Structure formats: structure tokens, C-alpha cells
Amino acid sequence: MILGIDTALSGCSVSLLDGSRQVEAMFELVHRGHAERLPLMIATLLDAHPAARGAINTVAVAVGPGSFTGIRVGLAAARALALAWQARCVGVSSLMATAAAAFAASPDPASLMAAIDASRGQVYAQPFARNDGGLTALAAPRVLAPEVAADWAVAERCPAVAGSGAALVAAALPALTVLPPEWTDAGWIARLAPYASAALAPRALYIRPHDARPMAVPAA
Amino acid sequence: MDETIILGLESSCDETAAAIVRADKTILANRVAGQEEEHRPYGGVVPEVAARAHAERLAPMVEAALADANLRLADIDAIAATAGPGLIGGVMVGLVTGKALAVATGKPLIAVNHLEGHALSPRLVGDVPFPYLLLLVSGGHCQLLRVEGVGAYRRLGTTIDDAAGEAFDKVAKLLGLGYPGGPAVERWARRGDPCRFDLPRPLKGTAEPHFSFAGLKSAVLREAGKLGTPDDTDKADLCASFQAAVVDSILDRTRRALDLAPDVTALVVAGGVAANSAIRAGLEALANRQGLPFIAPPGWLCTDNAAMIAWAGLERFRLGLTDGLDAPARARWPLDPNAARAPGAGVKA
Questions:
Q1: CATH classification of A2-93+184-192 is 3.30.1700.10, yes or no?
Q2: CB count, 10 Å around CB of A19?
Q3: If you placed Cys at A158, which of A31, A49, A153, B13 could pair as Cys (CB 3.0 to 4.6 Å)?
Q4: Predicted model pTM
Q5: B55 → closest Cβ in A35, A39, A72
Q6: Cβ contacts (< 8 Å) between B65 and chain A: which residues?
Q7: Are B140 and B332 in contact (CB under 8 A)?
């Protein structure tokens, strides 16, 4: 079984997969307070599915990009659970989860841009193409202004954009179609985890560096 | 015999730590990793840098602690994690790790106040009955507390501006002595003349045993400014004069606190600045004059560590004090919630 965890964005969610069958999914739009909410959700899930305790062999977690704090809450929980259960811990990109959910919800576009609101007038963005019932990243993720992301979508032949930053990108280029979902959820994190092309090390995908700047070297 | 075993986690500032402690005071594992290299380029602890480092290191550190103790998680009776006060991003990493371990194993969680970890730490290495007077001096705190029991503290005094350790770090920074500043100032002070600069002893002689270090730091800045480019002798003399002023101030304030708490069984010092040997020596002499035992936990237990968190967790667990999975991470969390605001206290006090 696979336990999925996603606290990287405004949602707080957990999911349980038995093979490819989703046996549980909980999602709450919390915006903040993931550290208080997530452990209770996991406890509720385990109470509802007591057999899962001994059967979970993979803990899948959204590693961002998204809220720095939220990413770390999910990672801390996932790594501790995996440690306790001696399970595999797998990271999944929030941009890929966004794109996978969008392709599943909309049969039309062959490619799309996943965009997550990065605040400060920027989005985290990455273009994806649909293939053989799955998806492929066309380039590495970047953090950039919505206008630049819109130009990038055009260059990568993406007619659509999905995710919490989609409206920002489409505002810069109205020709782009905004597709659901706005938020990622743990269901897609768990579903993607078995794929080698999606499975990452359980390490934060911050993309944007922290703000601290080294101080000037003091005069000797 | 009580053979309760507690796993402790600490991540509230710039030390990532995991420890395992048994009720008979045996420390079965005690892992601590500092982040000096990560923070050195910035001249101080950067919260986001600290949180990133904690998130990378804590889980492997728990595994290493279990391996050191030759235990499995199933052998642990409860999980104790620092829930504050401290840098919130780091606190969250430790607290959520603790919560997830508790959920996964079905063991109780104890959300520990980091300051209570320091306050009870002398009882991990000795038999110190309540009540005792605690001087808690670190980079973030400078308080005098009457420790009445587990979870029971009366704050007699606190700093109205900077913590003592903060003052050490700032003086080191302005003299270009490097990071971390406390040990650097102490090193330079050894070669210096403590009488060369006439520095203030803020709040000395006042009735309530509060502290103030911001003015002292500014006085050092002024003296350094007058010197233009201080040479090594100037720097050593400034460090020695500064340290002497801090020691004087701490001793005066502690003496006053002892007047206010005449029934205490011991004078105890804890926190990172307790590693300073001049402060230790002064406090020991003061305790001797007052006929009190002086208790200073060993240096490794004074700086941030998880053994003290596991121990505080154990003391709470024995009293049935456990916490829910929704226990909040707290940036601020005073040990004595009833303490009045210190007169003249700034926003950090």
C-alpha cells in the first residue's frame, strides 16, 4: 500500500492506495496550520484502515515547489513514518502532480504548463507533455514572472495552464486556457510515486533560494 | 525499577539533535549536529537556512540515535519533541517528526518547552530537589527562575532587551571576531585587561533582578569607534572589559534573586552561555558565599541538545503529562505565563 501526503500548497491531504485502487482520500483547504492538521489526518486515516499499518510499504510526499514551511511539514512527517515502518519514502513534484491531475481531468491538450503561485509576483512553472497514458516533463522547473511563464508556454507549444498560478499566467496571455485543478492533492502524489520518472528523493524542491545574503567580509 | 525510555528531538535553533534517555538517567544516545558552517557566511543564525538544515538532518539523526542505543522504535515508551519557543520553521520540523513517530508507533507524544529542557537538565546529571534558583542564559534568553517543580516556574527576572548570548555575539560581530561569537569573545578576553575600559553595568542595584545588555553592547561599539581601527590588544581589552561587565551584572542580579527566593536548595546555571568559564566561576563563588550548592551541568548539556528534551519529556511523562497530535508549534512560550511584563522591556523581552 502507498500512503500519500501533500502539505506543500494550501491543501492538507492524505491518501491511501492499495495497488492502483484509492481506498481513502482526505483533503482540506487549510492555507496554514498544516503542522497541527496533518498528524491528526494521518491518525484518522490509520484508525479507519487499521490493516494499513502493517501494509504500507511506500510513503509518498509532495516535495514542492510551494510553501517552504508546508513542504517541510510533509517531508518531516513522511520521513518519520517511513523510518518507523521501514517503508520506502518517495518525493513527488507538486508541479508534476498538478500536470497529471490536469491531464486526467481534461482529455484535450497534448501539452500544458503547470504553474504554482510563488507569491511576490512570480510562479513556479514547468511544461509537460501527455504520452502513453502518462506524462513527461519538457524542461526543468523554474521560478519566474507570469509573463515570462506565458511566453515559455507558447515556446513549448502548451495551449493550457493548470495550478494555483494558472490564473496569473493566463492573465498575462488570455489565449491560454486555464484547466483544473487549482490545488494538488495526496491522491496524485501517491499515484505517481511508483513511476521511476516521477519518483524523487524525499528532499525539498524549493527552486527559489532563501533570501539571506552573505555579509560583507569584515576588514581584518 | 522505572525503566521508561524516552526519545527526545530538538530543532528550535541551530542544533539538530536526537537523544534517548532512560529513567535511571542513563543517556543511551545523544546526537547533536550544529549548523555553524551553514550560518557563518551570514554572521548569525538565518531562520530559513536553519529550517532547511533541520529538515535534511533530523530523520537520519533519529536513526543514528536508535543505532547508538541499539534499540528499535518499539522499545521507546514515548516521543518528546521541542514545541517551542524558538525559530518556528525549525520547531515545526522537530515537532512534526515527533508527531509522525508517535502516530506510526502508537506511542504518546510529549510537546516539550525548550526552556523546561534547560531548566530540568541538572536533574538528569544529579539529584537536585525543588525548589532551586535557575539562571538560564543563552543566545535567546536571560532569565532568573525559581524552579518549583515540573511545569511550575516563577520568573523573578528577565532581560528587558538583548539576551546575554546575543550581546556576546553582537560584540564578536562588531569586532570581527567571527561566528559563533560567544566562545570567540571568551577566548580574546583571556588575553585582555578587564579594567581598561569603563563599561556600564546596566540595572545593577535595582530591586527586581532584571537584565539589560543592549546599552552595554552600544558602549562597546562607542569605545571601538573611538579607537578607529582596534589592534589585537584593543580587541582583547574590549572583550575582557565587556565580559567583566556581563559577569558583574549577572552576579548582582543573581544575588538579588537569591534574596527574593531564600528557600532554594541550590543555585543552578543552564543554557549555552553557562559554558562561559568566567560566568561559571563567578556564580560558583557567589553560591559558596551564600552556602548553597552550585550546579552547572556539563557543557554538552548546557548548549542545545536533545538529551535535556528527552529528560524533560520523561519528567512530564511520569506525571502523566502527554500531548495531543494537534499540539501547536510556538515561537514564544514563557515558562511562567503569569510573570508581569518587565518594566521598560522592549519587544524582544
A1: no
A2: 9
A3: A153
A4: 0.93
A5: A72
A6: none
A7: no
SS3 content of chain B, % helix, strand, coil (to 5): 45, 20, 35
Domain spans, chain A: 2-93+184-192, 95-179
Q: Which residues, including other chains, have CB under 8 Å from residue B230's CB and lie 6 or more apart?
A: B175, B224, B238
Contact A35 B96 (CB under 8 A): yes
Phi-psi region of A201 (alpha: psi -120 to 50; beta: other; left: phi over 0): beta
Per-residue pLDDT tens over the stretch B13-58: 889 999 999 999 999 999 999 888 888 888 778 899 899 999 999 9
Q: What is the ipTM of this complex?
A: 0.95
Residues of chain B with CATH 3.30.420.40: 5-121+301-318, 130-296
Cell numbers 583571556: residue:
B190
535511571: which residue's cell?
B24
Report how far apart, in Å, the C-alpha atoms of B13 and of each of B10, B36, B47 are. Answer: 8, 11, 8
Option in A40, A83, A212 nearest B325 (CB): A40
Superfamily name with CATH number, domain B5-121+301-318: ATPase, nucleotide binding domain (3.30.420.40)
Test mutation, B95, B96, B323, chain A, max A CBs within 10 A = B96
- CB interface of B with A, residues 157-196, below 8 Å: 176
CATH superfamily of A95-179: ATPase, nucleotide binding domain (3.30.420.40)
Could you tell me which CATH number the domain at B130-296 has?
3.30.420.40
B291: left (phi over 0), alpha (psi -120 to 50) or beta: left
**Rounded CA Rg of chain B:** 20
